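haha ok so turns out i had the wrong file open the whole time. this is the CORRECT one, sorry everyone. sequence first:
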Amino acid sequence: MNFWLIQRMNFKDTKFEEISGVDSLLAYDYMGSAEFEFGALGESLREICKKLYQYQWFHSKLLHAKDGCSLDFICLSEQYDEVYAFLAQETREPHRLKEPTYLKEALRGEKFYTTRCRAWWDIQNHWIAYLGQNNEVRIMAALQKSAAKLREKGKI
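then structure:
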């Protein structure tokens, strides 16, 4: 698995009953590279939604932020080993990516990053990592509602 385009995100203050899709839940950090523009997130969302029933939530017992939140992720089960290894490495010595994830800084509790980076979306390999308890329920609800919209429009 090649790791190159990871979108930094934060959670919006959206009540569970107000979640209408991914955009209603997640705020995207400006990445500064054209690769993150021109529909790349939409393409990744379609790929996730096509196989959403195969996606699983994985709780990380070893990767935690300073505030105690675990770094968890949603991916296909066959991606688990590589995604976990990537995240573990990224918390110690960040990879060379198109744009930095600031994951290490967010986990250490550096204020600038903890207010902007609470979730990360690999838009090439189609997985999402995040901090915060119960966010897997919110993310899965957002993905399910996005999938329903895409099916309605005949895009998946």
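The mean pLDDT is 91.
again sry for the mixup
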